[in-house]
């Protein structure tokens, strides 16, 4: 039930810190071990490449998890759209392992790929929020998201739950296989800090709401820019904004702007910059200067240690593997308020269904 909340989406945004804590309890044991299926970990160990297959927000969660997975598992990871893979299997490695990310577990495009994967006899894992769903039943292994029912069409807590579960799984795998990056990542501690940092962002709702009113009230388009993990979050941020506010939005790799897209910037175009990485952050700042000088209205979301005077929203510094979890939260709130103030039904955007069960 949504209780006092006007829309489920806000309730689900607010639930995210609790979801992180619940998942930590679910999969990380007090003695330092993890409760993932031993056979699953063994099959991952026997594979030479992981193929993440998903659609929409789940696809974006795959990208946001890729770097942490590769670092902690020492296995190359590819992220694919189900609707593309369904028609063209790339040249696969000799021992592929498929991970299906799907909140609903019913997405037809993803299922179509799973059917092929099963025909080919490759191992598969479905990470889903719905026990007993089609993709869960048909994959060899299932890991549940334990996010509680997600009602709003715009996915929020499933995205953060997917990244969290993949962090936990990668940590469990890396620990077992002696991967240094995994051993050094105190997943329980870092996810706890991230949950607390999410709560701090959530208490800044009103600041976000008033900025949204001023810069997104009547715009036709908007951009999110970032590099690395921030780029992956930008992809998700733009999808959310499009989906519920109908503002044409693009998530852009900041360095690519000058190769074409900057032509779209005019006076008043909103550009949100994500700056959470010490290496790429200064470069993204440079890109923000470029768009500002062409009239863009910028909004900077920066981690504390990289923040500059005038930045609109400051996030706590969290572990690099947890940055996407935190950085996505203000972008969910931005999309929510943009939809609300434009007078739309936040939970039920036009033309969309919660589970896309047709191809
Ligand atoms: O249930 P799934 O995770 O497989 O759904 C995939 C997409 O349809 C879904 O993430 C969609 O993009 C959301 N409405 C985005 O908010």
TrEMBL record:
Its EC number is 2.6.1.16. This is Glutamine--fructose-6-phosphate aminotransferase [isomerizing]. Catalyzes the first step in hexosamine metabolism, converting fructose-6P into glucosamine-6P using glutamine as a nitrogen source. The keyword Transferase applies. It is an enzyme of class 2 (transferase). GO terms for biological process: carbohydrate metabolic process; fructose 6-phosphate metabolic process; protein N-linked glycosylation; UDP-N-acetylglucosamine metabolic process. It catalyses: D-fructose 6-phosphate + L-glutamine = D-glucosamine 6-phosphate + L-glutamate. One of its GO terms (molecular function) is glutamine-fructose-6-phosphate transaminase (isomerizing) activity. Keywords: Aminotransferase, Cytoplasm, Glutamine amidotransferase, Repeat, Transferase. The chain holds residues 245 to 603 of 603 of the full protein. One of its GO terms (cellular component) is cytosol. It is found in: Cytoplasm. The active site is at residue 354.
């Amino acid at each position: 039930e949504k209780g006092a909340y006007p829309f489920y989406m806000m309730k689900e945004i607010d639930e995210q810190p609790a979801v992180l804590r619940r998942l930590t309890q679910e999969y990380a044991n007090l003695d330092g071990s993890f409760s993932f299926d031993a056979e699953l970990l063994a099959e991952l160990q026997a594979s030479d490449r992981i193929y993440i297959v998903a659609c929409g927000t789940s696809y974006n969660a795959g990208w946001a998890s890729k770097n942490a997975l590769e670092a902690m598992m020492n296995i190359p990871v590819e992220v694919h759209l189900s609707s593309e893979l369904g028609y063209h299997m790339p040249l696969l490695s000799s021992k592929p392992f498929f991970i299906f990310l799907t909140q609903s577990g019913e997405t037809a495009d993803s299922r179509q790929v799973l059917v092929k994967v099963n025909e080919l006899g490759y191992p598969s894992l479905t990470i889903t929020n719905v026990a007993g769903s089609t993709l869960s039943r048909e994959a060899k292994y299932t890991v549940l998201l334990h996010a509680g029912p997600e009602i709003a069409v715009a996915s929020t807590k499933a995205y953060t739950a997917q990244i969290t579960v993949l962090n936990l799984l990668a940590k469990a795998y890396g620990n077992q296989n002696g991967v240094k990056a995994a051993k050094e990542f105190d997943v329980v501690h870092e996810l706890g800090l991230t949950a607390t940092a999410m709560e701090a962002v959530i208490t800044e709702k009103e600041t976000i709401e008033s900025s949204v009113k001023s810069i997104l009230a009547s715009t036709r388009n908007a951009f999110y820019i970032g590099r690395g993990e921030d780029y992956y979050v930008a992809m998700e941020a733009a999808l959310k904004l499009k989906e519920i506010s109908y503002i044409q939005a693009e998530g852009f790799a900041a360095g690519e702007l000058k190769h074409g897209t900057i032509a779209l910037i005019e006076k008043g175009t909103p550009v949100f910059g994500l700056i959470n990485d010490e290496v790429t952050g200064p470069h993204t700042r440079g890109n923000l200067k470029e768009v500002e000088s062409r009239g863009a209205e910028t909004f900077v979301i920066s981690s504390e240690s990289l923040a500059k005077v005038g930045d609109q929203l400051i996030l706590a510094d969290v572990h690099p593997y947890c940055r996407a979890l935190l950085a996505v939260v203000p972008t969910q709130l931005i999309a929510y308020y943009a939809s609300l103030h434009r007078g739309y039904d936040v939970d039920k955007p036009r033309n969309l269904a919660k589970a896309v069960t047709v191809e």
